[in-house]
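Chapter summary example.
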Amino acid sequence: MTYKNYLLLAMIGLIWGSQFVFQDVAVAEISPLWVGVSRSVIGALTLVVLCRMLKLRSRSHSRSHSQWGLFALIGLLEATIPFVLVPWGQQQLDSAVVAVLMGTIPFFALLCAPLLISGASITRSGLMSVLLGFGGLVLLFWPALSSGMGAVEPVRGLAVMGAAASFAVALLLLNRVKGEHPLIVARNVLTMASVQLVLLAFVVSPLEAGGHSNRALASVIYLGVMCAGVVYFLYMALLQRTGPVFTSMTNYLVPAIGVVIGAVFNHEAVAPTTWLALVVIVAALMLNKPPSGKNKARSTPRGVPTTGESAAG
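The structure predicted for these 313 residues follows.
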């Protein structure tokens, strides 16, 4: 039902919105590169454990093996490429600019959907929702953008937008995964992404020595278990229920929730525009109603189970 889709969206927003608080604690002692790698690996292990506990396995082992190439490609586009481009772009871009540029993910998902998904089309309500949500994201970071902090260095800006486009294409390619439970899909994609990121990390930066505080290590564990493992399963479930465009709207909701959580736990100042931006973003989500009935059938790949179906046995 529709309210379940919005509930899933809210849960994803809350979990991913909380990552900023824990990430600040982790990167104070551990390099951002290894925080990201550790988060990905712990998330993949969390999903492996969940699959074992729930006795979930691929519906068809031969089909699963044939899809590992697709899982590797999705992991490359969704994690490895953005993992390289976004930090590189952030070196000379304000965080507000990066957040707004990453907010182009729903645009890329909307525009590329007809090219990569059979029967997909750009609807008026979908376009209006994406535009309204992007407006809310700009409003959220307007104080920083208008203060002169939001200068954009063209090449770095294009790198971040390239990461956004890569993530959007990965989101659309997930529709080509056939006949698997969303927990299995999340496990396989995150596992392939983890392998790629570990290899990248060892090439770019040697493994750090120990000596980190329990607070930093606990933050990394939370980021891995909740902000990579659990939330990625919820993300896959929402994708299979509603399609890529609605799911990509989380990119508008997460920064807004992150600002609010930061204000509550870190006592950070909240501009009046923040609350208005949150209202605008919620309005955009309500405008982009997830498909149901026949429309839902068009947006969900054939053979892909919804969250209520079991792949066990």
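To summarize the output: The radius of gyration is 19 Å.
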